[in-house]
User: Fold this.
Amino acid sequence: MSTLPFHRRKDVRLAFRYLLALLLVIVFVFPVYWLFIISFKTPDEIFAFPPVWYPESIQFANYKVLFKDGDAATVGNSLILATVSTVFAMILGTIAAYSLVRFKTGGENLAVWIISQRMMPPVAIVFPVFLLYVWLGWVDSYTGLIVLYTAFSLPYVIWMMRGYIEDIPLELEESALVDGCTRWEVLWKVVLPMARSGLFATAVFTFIFAWNDFLFALVLTRTEVTTYTVQVTHYFGGQSNFWAKIAAMSVLGTIPVFITVAIMQRFLVRGISMGAVKG
Amino acid sequence: MSDLKITGLHKHYGAFHAVKGIDLDVPSGEFTVLVGPSGCGKSTLLRCIAGLEETSAGTVEIGGKDVTWARPRDRDIAMVFQNYALYPYLNVKDNIAFGLRARKFGEAEVEKRVARAAEMLGIGHLLQRFPRELSGGQRQRVAIGRAIVRDAILYLFDEPLSNLDAQLRDDMRVEIKRLHKELKRTMVYVTHDQIEAMTLADRIVLLRDGVIEQLGTPLDLFERPRTRFVAGFLGSPKMNFLDATLSASGVILKDGTTLELPGRSGLKPGQAVILGLRPQHIAMAGASIAKGHMRVPVVIELVQPTGSRVQATMPLGGASIIAELGAHDVSRPGEKTSIDIDMTHAIIIDPATETVI
Assistant:
């Protein structure tokens, strides 16, 4: 049997790798494609057999229904809850992390204790929180969910920001103190710019946590601040599932995260690797 | 008037006593160098002056005002750090302007001052660059620029040249000396490098284990050290120390060599001492013996040429000593020759107290 020359063998190996990569991409991307495509189909096309791989024409009817019925507003609710709670968690968490790093607030172990709060399963506290919120009158309100999401994200933000802040050379801060800055100005003018990548990376993950939440939103909302994750479940019926609405709502729910990650991508990659490798 | 007055300053880190009661007065316009081996407390002392460390006891006065408990920003000081401490996200101009803007100077004034500082340091063409685009020497200039751009009472330098290579260090030393001459400001400079201390200082504060070992002009410390530590710390190559016994008019070395000590009285014969000889005070034997010099035959053991001089190692009095000789005085090890020792500059040390007699 004749063996292939070296450079030919290399070509074959490369081709094999591309094939494998292509297969993996199909496995991962197809469900997303299918979701998108369903959202633009007519009811007939959705249930057609053999399946319609791509629709004859793009239909926006499924989206129009969501906007007309007010269902699309739940995406707005999610957006408000996730954005506001992310902003709060980032502000409070960064300040707390700075305090932990520079002033050793609470000793060496407080940071570990804080992150341990994150290990508690949400379901363990959701019902006590529900009872508390009934008493406070916070059920089905922005306040209730924002406070809860902020509280739940804080340990993560503190833990991440603590790592990024630790990497900032102390001399930079001391130099600013001597130059005439207060501690708050040091935080604003030195620490934040230095930890910018980490800040954005952490914010993206915090945002996604709140965005993806289902359990808290399910238990603590009724009609006023229903989030899109809860809304989607309304389309799974006992008799039939509203695939068109499910798909269209899912697409609406994907877009904000997609845009956020696309904008933050530059910082995201740097931020994630920054925390991992100490320079 | 003194710009800096430190009284009874102590600093504890838990059980570790880093600074043990320092009293120091720095007159206006003086260049004071705090020098000593690592761990002597010199950087801690500087950080206490800057307000970056809280003092455990004692007071710090800057410009006649008690600032012991004042924040760094309220002390009217400027500081240059060892690792430059430049903000990587700001260009050179914004780095230099940082302190001015923090103190709410108007933009016109900021422009003027930055331009002047940049001109003084020869970095005018780098203003738009970022720190990562600069060499080590340029970064250090920017760091110095950031300090001198302000009108502070006191300028602090924390080992600013220790990250630079030898050639650049020499250049920057000249630069700092020139700046001090032009600005006529009070400066306190920390270094572990005795050459930097000798060349820059109006006055040296030599620290050891958290206390001031000796304080004075560079020549004062070099020529009239009060302890063995001071004698050994300053000077390169290091001072030679030989075990000896006092006689009525001089010292007797371990091998019986007798060296006269001119102009000394009240010596206690028989007392064990340490004789200190600077390598610079040993020369090749000339045609005649100068007054106060002692001639001794030696065998050269090692030769280290430095270009302008040669450092020759030779056995003497049961130990090995180094002499700094003329570049062409000796050429190879094993050479038998004679040296003249200038005994007028010799010091004798009490081994029990390590102080100079």
The radius of gyration of chain A is 24 Å. Chain A has a mean pLDDT of 89. Chain A touches chain B at residues 169, 171-172, 174-182, 185, 189-190, 193-194, 196 (CB under 8 Å). The longest helix of chain A spans residues 6-39.
